[in-house]
Amino acid sequence: MKIKEMCAEERPREKLLSAGAESLSNGELLAVLLRSGYYSPSGQGKSALEIAQELLALTGGRLLPLAGMNAKEILSVKGIKSQKAATLLATIEFGRRFMLEQV
Questions:
Q1: End-to-end CA distance of the chain
Q2: Distance (Å, whole) CA 31 – CA 99
């Protein structure tokens, strides 16, 4: 299902803005970072949420293994191209640096 077809309250970006980031699941947070899915002219494809869930399936639903993935591994997920992979890798690095400052 396309995210645009979801109720506004259930869409990850809108949910984040109205209820806060802590209200989102890991998949929903990833979907916000991915921004969009992919669709062919015939309408086949996946939403950003479905792509995020596929990516999490590779890590057993956990975030720590995701932080250890490299670009090639992230790019292996259909629907993730270089721009989305770069966004994810930059976000992971940003989080890593944030945690280093906290220590």
A1: 42
A2: 22
Rounded CA-CA distance 64/73 in Å is 14
The DSSP result for 18-76, as a single string, is HH-GGGS-HHHHHHHHH---EE-TTS-EE-HHHHHHHHHHTTTT-SHHHHT--HHHHHT
What 3-state DSSP class applies to 8? helix
* Tokens linked to 92: 């992971």
pLDDT at 5: 77
What is the C-alpha to C-alpha distance for residues 50 and 28, in angstroms, rounded to an integer?
9
Q: pLDDT digits over 66-91, tens only?
A: 999 999 999 999 999 999 999 999 99
| pTM beyond cutoff 0.85 | yes
Q: Quick one: CA dihedral 36, 40, 41, 47, positive or negative?
A: negative
